[in-house]
Amino acid sequence: MNMRxxxxxxASAAIxxxxxxIHLAVIIYAVQGGLSAEEILGRTRGNLGWGLFYGLFVVxxxxxxxxxxxxxxxxxxxxxxxxxxxxxxxxxxLLLVWGLRAVLAVVGEGAA
Length: 112
Fold this sequence. Notes:
This protein is mainly α. It has four helices and no strands. Helix 1 (3-32) packs across helix 3 (48-76). The model has no long low-confidence stretch (mean pLDDT 93).
């Protein structure tokens, strides 16, 4: 793995660690507060802050996960470099699309 990907993987891990801690703290707060799913969605709908938070979460997961998959495929398979890179890019794209759709469903005004 080249040095840029190495550092990007480590940086994304550090960001994810912080985001996961915040996410878990919010879950604990919501559960202890007795909030229902409907009440939680009522607080997230139309909220730019939560949209940005979870959007950053999704982008960081896409970066971290696709670089990790690239490393695993390169080390554990006989796939060529182009195939490994293609699989990593495809994984990043899928994670971004699926993740951002989920964020929009939770934060979007017209989400149902």
